[in-house]
Amino acid sequence: MNFDSYVAVDHQSLRAVKENIFHELESSEYFIFIDFKREKIVGKEDSKEKYRGSLFSHQELGVASFLDKEVIAFQEDCVEQKEGLLGFLQANTDVFYERDNLVDKIIDKIKERSWNPYWKNTLKFEIVKPYEDAFQLGQGVSRFFHIGVRNLHKNKAARNCYVYLDGIQEVGSKRLLQIESTELKWAGYIYPNALIQPGSVRRFDAIVVQFPPYNLTNSTPKMKFNQFTDSTAYVPNLPVGKDLEIRYAIISENFTMIKGRFLLKVGKEINDFKLEAL
Questions:
Q1: Bridge partner residues of 184 (DSSP)
Q2: Total-model pTM
Q3: In this predicted model, what pLDDT tens digit does every residue of 134-148 receive, in sequence order?
Q4: Which of 215-219, 266-270, 273-277 has the weakest average pLDDT?
């Protein structure tokens, strides 16, 4: 059905649970809970035999519930009903009697819920339009290199999104440049925090290349970032004529932070400058 699935198997250590299972739960859009019967419950007065469910699966269900994941839940017949977290969560379970047809039942339920494999609960970097040229009064023509941030969620807007420099490195010498933490500017917008609608993309000013006023030839380009700062101490000292690896980070109120690496190819003419994703 074109879904990328993850099943937690062969993870025996707490480190594996933290680094693998918790990470996969956080980055997943949907959660399928299957409560297979385990050991028999001794001493039950009911005529029908009862069995314990899976303790570990209930723990995963608790994490998925905390992360507000959409859940489809199945319980094998004879498993003790409303035991564990199912007694506290509003997760209506479907009972299955034969394991052989469980996969078909899961497929039917996925179709009934209209689950979609082509969206994700995350933000993503992309270069939609490489640059725009604009005339700035007293500064001449500047080339604004843009990077887009796409919201891959189907119906959740990304709120209070901020852009930060995460690192700058000279490509040849591998020298790291000193940077301070300041917000970068979203394209065509005067505030540091922006909202990105579901399924849409919003661009930010990745870097600006300036030339002296009214003179686009035989001039030395000047690179700068559009930062929210009133102090030159927070402005990176960029080397002249050096290709740069620039790392950016996007922080959002309701999405996990993302980071991206980009290569800025530097030249003597304005058309020699290129910004590419790494």
A1: 227
A2: 0.75
A3: 876 666 678 999 999
A4: 215-219
